[in-house]
# Entry
Amino acid sequence: ASDITERVEHGRYVQGQLDALNHSMATIEFSLDGTIQTANDNFLRSSGYDLSEIRGKHHRIFCASELASSEEYRLFWQALCRGEFQKGCYQRLTKDGQQIWLEATYNPIVDNNGKLVKVMKIASDVTESVLKRVETGELAYKASTETDEIAIEGDKSINEAINSMNTVKNELLS
# Structure
């Protein structure tokens, strides 16, 4: 009886973890070939899709065509199929074609026998912070460019002043 109690308690514990994850993160599951199996409401909200629109389609629907047809993308899925965990900040596309940035992990999932059976992506929408960093970088670049222009103008003014002083000096000495 205590063995069954331990299993039930462990099952509740695991279910509690899954519920917490499902509540706070965007998740989507793929077969090993990249076909979408399911996604939670957080993922669907951030991507703009309904589950019926994406189930059975390939992950590439979230990617720019250049990425989806790239060697990098092919190698990404090959690594997942070898059981290699992937982590990063990924640019993806929403249903209406808008860019979205996801801080995500792609997690190969194994069955009880250790056989790879699917990939689960766990993500957080970081679009706002990425866009702020891009904007900050653009502002810093603009400020740097303006500072360079001011420095160049200042250098010209100093050189003109030196030339004028040399002319005056030469006139006084002659």
Remarks:
- Residues 70 and 104 are 20 Å apart (CA to CA).
